[in-house]
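Recall that a protein's primary structure is simply its ordered list of amino acids. Everything else, from secondary elements to tertiary packing, is in principle encoded there. The following example makes that idea concrete.
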Amino acid sequence: MKKIEAIIKPFKLDDAKAALGEIGIDGMTVSEVRGFGRQKGHSELYRGAEYVVEFHPKVKLEIVVSDDLVEKVTLALRESANSGKIGDGKIFIYPMEEAVRIRTGERGESAIS
């Protein structure tokens, strides 16, 4: 099993969710996060005062999948979250040691399906 974390632009969330649904992924955790990479911060005006936005709003998707779905999920996320502009995000893939379904006590891949 692997845990896939994707940091994407908020307006791409619906596209990513639809693309994942098409390949059979029906569960994920979504968090609103803030951060920056190469794009760094930028200045904005608010009520006549200039201020620096250092952290950009992003959305983090967390998905745990079996090893055989990792490439499909990664490709679906890359294609659906790509706007072609800086700040599109990142995908991280981690080994997942164990998963346990709280309600039934199921373990491993049966706990994530």
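The CA atoms of residues 105 and 111 lie 8 Å apart. The first strand starts at residue 2 and ends at 8.
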